[in-house]
Hints:
The protein is an alpha+beta fold. The protein has 6 helices and 19 strands. Strand 13 and strand 14 form a beta hairpin.
Amino acid sequence: MERLDKTLSKQLNIARSEAKALIKKGSVTVNGALAVSGDMKCADSDVISVDGKKITVNKYVYIMLNKPKGYISATEDKNEKTVLELVPKDMQRKGLFPAGRLDRDTTGFVLITDDGDFAHSILSPKKHVDKTYIATLDRPFTEEVKSDFESGMELGGKKLQKAELDAVDGDFKTARVVLREGMYHQVKRMFKKHGITVVELKRTKIGSLELDKALAEGESRYITETELQNIRNS
């Protein structure tokens, strides 16, 4: 159960005072009855309408974004464009943040949510939720590099978790990398250890959920409950 004014504020991405003003104006109904107070409690099953239009009440939202270059994975920044600026206005709500980070010049799957517990569960090294990347390299990787990735590389004085490394369609300058942790610039640093530069990097999958190929760069959509379960089961 949640206060009506808080629910309206979160779902409509408006201030609590604006929500109270809508209620005072007589614009809000709950299960067909006129709402008279912002402090009335509402359940997820209640039907809330504003000016006759039903609003969808979700405790949390989960958004798949296909990140282009030039944006940072942050909620706000004075100098840089953030991934939240790409979320359409009708999907915006208070408390959204990117679950995990992609570098400014890395593209692909960013999961945006307001569910902190869920974000922690997919980012925690103890959960081992795979993150899959496609890396374009300046020169081919070798079996020695593959062995180092897959045995648990030593990097910066730390023993990394085992990672997967495979050539894409037999091209050893295009690599599929699967990580189970998320150190800063990890993929780039792992290749750099072997004198290889990552020219392009794209995250294509979180757990077993792939980036929707129908999403152009900069576009986003809601993640379904079934898709969320695929990530959780990963």
